[in-house]
Amino acid sequence: MVHDFLGAMENPFRSHKLWKEADDDDIQEVLDALECFVLGNSQVCESVYQSMESELGQKDATLVKRMWCLQFVQPQHLDIKAVHRSHPALSLARKMLHRIQQVRSPQEKMECVFRAARIIFRMLNETAATGNSDIACADDFLPVFIYAVLKSQTPQLYSALEYMALFRRPSRLGGERHYYLVQLQTAVAFIEHMDGASLTIDPEEFDTSLTLKFQAWE
Question: Are 30 and 19 in contact (CB under 8 A)?
Answer without folding.
Answer: yes
